[in-house]
Design goal:
Elements (H helix, E strand, L loop, with lengths): L4 E8 L5 H10 L6 E6 L6 H6 L12 E4 L8 H13 L7 E5 L6 H6 L10 E11 H5 L7 H10 L8 H12 L2 E5 L6 H14 L5 E4 L7 H4 L40 E9 L4 H15 L3 E7 L5 E8 L2 E9 L6 E9 L4 H9 L1
Parallel strand pairs: 1-4, 1-5, 2-3, 2-4, 5-6, 6-7
Antiparallel strand pairs: 8-12, 9-10, 9-12, 10-11
Length: 353
């Protein structure tokens, strides 16, 4: 029987740097033919568009497959398994498959899906990599940390600290074979070391916690871990996501109760912008004013032939020119993600001003 094709699941909260890490992986693939499955929360395929055309012959546009019909852990039967079958049935299958989950997806149901009969003999989970925004977690955002929660409560008495976000974060840590503290360059050494110690204490025994800046890690560190994670679900317990105990080990248990009603997303389109720096400040102000979790997209800049990519988590906005606009319309398109109840009209007006 041919060896199973390894697959790596890259998970992590909104804006942790998953796409940046994968882009670095692709540009340093060292000859590996890597196929990508990308699951985005939102109506605009930003991450897939960033990763397509990575400039490496081992990763063509055809090797990037997007699932945008919903959270990957909720659409296993309809989307994920058929997509995997398409990749595996190619005349030249990939050497490795990388799956980037949305920031709202749970890794456990996805890993469990590798036991489905349709794919179980052909592919295995090489490892689950959880990417953490080191600065955000150190500041107490999206972490189940009593001290951090108390600090936030002092700042905002109306804040609901027991949200699904903290449970999503804990589930992603619980399932990890490797935890990457990204954006470590924004942390002092003492804070970075303290965070690494905290995450190691909360993770399963033997899980590696490593630090990175801009997702820059050797491909040999990320791939080739040989964990066969789908055979080791007992220790990857879930807080947010509960199955019936009598169905836990049944690969035909193809349903679960995972509520995404707490989140919403929408797209804002506006004409090209004049000043990237001023627009980044405008985006940051809008995020602060409306408690937006994540904002990402593309902008056309007046007089510039290149497309400007914007990615923001919290009030921190990163932007860079990535490729020529070509036939793309000279407009700005941004996907806004937040907890339910966003004032769409006010946000659209603020970003369009």
């Amino acid at each position: 029987m041919p060896a199973k094709i390894p697959a790596t699941v890259v998970t992590g909260f909104l804006g942790s740097g998953k796409t940046t890490l994968i882009r670095h992986m692709l540009t340093n693939a060292n000859g590996r033919r890597i196929a990508l499955i990308i699951n985005e929360f939102g109506d605009l395929g930003v991450d897939g568009d960033i990763l397509k055309g990575c400039g490496d012959e081992t990763c063509s546009d055809d090797d990037v497959m997007e699932l945008s019909n919903g959270c990957i852990c909720c659409t296993v039967a309809e989307d994920f398994v058929p997509t995997m079958q398409k990749l595996l049935d190619r005349d030249t299958p990939p050497d490795h498959i990388v799956i980037e989950t949305s920031g709202l997806a749970l890794p456990q149901p996805l890993v469990r899906a590798f036991n489905w009969p349709e794919i179980s003999t052909r592919v295995t989970v090489d490892g689950v990599v959880t990417v953490v925004d080191g600065k955000a977690v150190t500041e107490g955002r999206f972490a189940h940390d009593t001290a951090a929660v108390d600090a936030q409560r002092k700042q905002d008495d109306n804040l609901d600290h027991e949200t699904p976000l903290s449970e999503l974060f804990e589930d992603q840590i619980a399932c990890a074979d490797m935890i990457v503290i990204n954006k470590s360059d924004l942390l002092a050494e003492t804070a970075s070391t303290a965070l690494a110690d905290r995450l190691e204490a909360r993770a399963r025994k033997g899980v590696h916690v490593i630090r990175a800046a801009h997702g820059a890690l050797p491909v040999e560190v990320l791939l080739g871990r040989g964990q066969a994670a789908e055979d080791d679900m007992a220790g990857r317990h879930e807080l947010h996501h509960h199955h019936h105990d009598d169905d836990e080990d049944d690969p035909d248990d193809r349903h679960h109760d995972h509520d995404h009603d707490a989140f919403e997303s929408f797209v804002v389109t506006r004409p090209e912008i004049a000043d990237p720096k001023a627009f980044a400040a405008q985006v940051a102000d809008t995020i602060r004013a409306h408690d937006i979790l994540r904002l990402k997209g593309f902008a056309a800049v007046r007089g510039k032939p290149m497309r400007l990519t914007l990615q923001a988590v919290g009030p921190r906005v990163d932007s860079y020119f990535d490729r020529p606009l070509g036939s793309d319309p000279r407009e700005t398109r941004l996907v806004v993600i937040g907890q339910a109840g966003l004032d769409r009209a006010a946000i659209t007006a603020a970003l369009s001003a």
